[in-house]
Amino acid sequence: MESIKKTLYLNKSKLGKIARYQCIYIVLIIALLAAVIVSVNSGTVDLSVSEIFKIIVLKAQEGSVESNVIWKIRLPRLIAAGVLGGALSVAGFLLQTFFRNPIAGPYVLGISSGAKMFVAFTMIVLMNYVNVLPPGVIMLAAFIGSLISMGFVILAARKVKDMAMLLVVGVMIGYICAAFTDLFVNFAQERDIANLTNWSMGSFSGIGWADIRLITIVVFISLAAVMMLSKPIGAYQLGEGYAKSMGINIRVFRILIVLFSSLLSATVTAFAGPIAFVGIAIPQVTKMLMNTSKPIIIIPTTFLTGAVFCVFCDLLARTMFAPIELSIGTVTAFFGAPFVIWLLLSRKK
Amino acid sequence: MYFQTDNLSVGYCGKALIKNINIGVEKGKILCLLGPNGSGKSTILKSISRHLKKIAGTVFIAKEDMNNLNSVEVAKRLSVVLTEKVAPELMTCEEVVATGRYPYTNHFGKLTDEDHRIIEESMAAVSVLDLMDNEFSHLSDGQKQRVLLARAICQQPEIIILDEPTSYLDIRHKIELLGILRKMAVNQKVTVILSLHEVDLAAKLADTIILVKDNSVYGSGCPEDVLSDTVIKKLYGIEAGSFNMLMGSVELPKTCQTEPKVFVFGGDGYGTRCYRALHKRGISFCTGVLYHNDVDYQVAMSLARQTIFEKSFRPISDVIYEQACKAMLNCKVIIDTGFDLDGVTNRNRQLLELAYNTNKPILSLRKQPQKTKANIQYFNDIGSMISCEKLMLESGEKISISMCS
Q1: Is B111 on the interface with A (CB under 8 A)?
Q2: Could you give the CA distance from residue B393 to residue B382 in angstroms, rounded to a whole number?
């Protein structure tokens, strides 16, 4: 009798969890759709919903101004915001697990700044030879820059066990990278500077279909790979010692996590510049929403949440003070920073 | 031997700390490492569990060299409970225990019905089933330790390694945890290798004991043979105080070295509580006449200034009796803890009657008063006796305190 009661109770709690997950997913998808519709619909050129529908689905009025606005400007920007936002959140989740630090993220740990520094360096050097850098090169540069910063953070993490101290180190690494970036900019030609400052402000604008293709390929392959790693990530949450005792090859696992988190955040930095706080706040929000930190659940959900958040933030960046456009980092910081402060304060208890 | 190390050397960064360790344990038996802090117990355990790279030597499980096993095969045979603090975010106890299924589940860690059954069984074995949906990080240390043990059990190992599993536990949880280990060893033939700080518990739990001191194996064998008062004293470098292996009890160092002012009639185990109470107050005492096989004898030897005793199973000889008389007459206060008065030739009774006639103050804990005399005062408990005025004045506590401090 008792065993029956227990299984019933078990099923009930499990069902409750699944219902919760489903609700959250439905809400997120609705939010994403809403954000997409509003995004496509807002801007200087006014279009009705039916027109947009015709242009996107039926590819009507090809070659017209309306079609160009939608296909060449709004859609790529929207997709970029969604995919890169998601990538940033997943990178944040990986870093939080890796450093066992709930306030870690690619921006605060200086990883984005490292990417930015190396991209600036590459741009200034290579712009002497070519006019336009292929997206692949920029991404590679960002990836190398990310790995350099990550290397320093990992070295620091060996020495400092305090999670607040690690963040301080990360912020300092960020400043050092910024200083180097400024130094490079001093040596750059004026034409490059315009290019550079625009990019380094952080924006989803100016991303073309060729970029999108690269972005989606890299991000979705990384996402799939990270999903495949969700089992060892889950074990790693119990600590390295236990993870090892369950048969995980810690060295390989750590390298993979470093590579994928750097790749994801580098992709974002390469195409949209450094974006603050998404990487910290969104994985945390997702964990709270789902009330779990199970990687197999959190990884896809945090990707979706990140996508929704960034599409909304980009919408705000575009429309709040139109025709002046805010940098995406401004908007994400506006929401993200207070959340992180709250997170820090609530943990002190 | 089911588990065996062959000339194992362990240490950090390629430098051997402990060399040539040859320890072994049969299947379903418990091996316990004892030794002071920093002696290298953890280093040995970590090297066996492959958390540390061993420097040299071989470790065999069921005659198989562990080097030939891959990490998943090892995980299926050997699980651990570590000292490192675990603080997973938002993980329920069930999820923590479920990580024990790691070596058995598919690539995505999907738990089958069988896995769920094993998880529940493991949690039931350490009675944490009711904590299933609680968040792990909200538990008490004792509960956490039990959940982590459930996790280790859930891994269905042949060997469980535990590094100081009783560290944060209160006495009840210590007993429960070690009880679970004993049961697992007997019923499921799980081999247990652990390190403990509690010598007394180790002696009661383990089948084999390894003593580790100053980065070397100091001794090993059956605890009943290996552990003795002197071995423990040497192992831990105890200079003051004592550890009584037979009683499994610890006595604090003597606080006073003055000549005894109090004579205690002990025996039948009545004396021990009184000895400890006097000892804590720094009151020097002598006691007698005890038989060698009396429980009081063990404690008296550690705490009393002078213990007058007779060999077991024979009448008290004249020499001993005279010795006791002399000691008693030299004291200012006499305490009668209530030993057995029966027997025609009971010389302790004779000694007590002598005491009654000396007019020295006698503090008696005897339940049935023997005599009413001005110098005899009866007490119901040690607390009131120990703080009574006569004892204070006559035992010269003032003097002894000033002399000892």
Answers
A1: no
A2: 17
